[in-house]
Amino acid sequence: MSAAVRPSNDPLFHHWMPFTANRQFQEQPRLIARAEGVYYYNTHGEKLLDGSSGLYCIPLGHGRREIREAVAKQMEELDYAPPFQYGVPTAFRLATEVAQMLPAGLNRVFFTCSGSEAADTALKVAIQYHRARGEGQRMRFIGRERGYHGVNFGGWSVGGMVANRKSFGVGLPGVSHLRHTHIKENYFQMGEGEHGADLADDLERFVNLHGADTIAACIVEPIAGSTGILVPPKGYLKRLREICTKHGILLIFDEVITGFGRTGEAFAAQTFGATPDILTMAKAITNGSIPMAAVAVRDEIQQVIQDAAPANTIEFAHGYTYSAHPAACAAGLATLKIYREEDTFSRVKALAPDFLEQIGSFKGMPGVIDTRGFGLLGAVEVTPKGKPGERGFEILRKAFENGLVLRSAGDNLVLAPPFAATPDQISEMIDILRRLIKES
Ligand SMILES: Cc1ncc(COP(=O)(O)O)c(C=O)c1O
Question: What does DSSP say about strands 377-382 and 368-374: parallel, antiparallel, or unpaired?
Answer without folding.
Answer: antiparallel
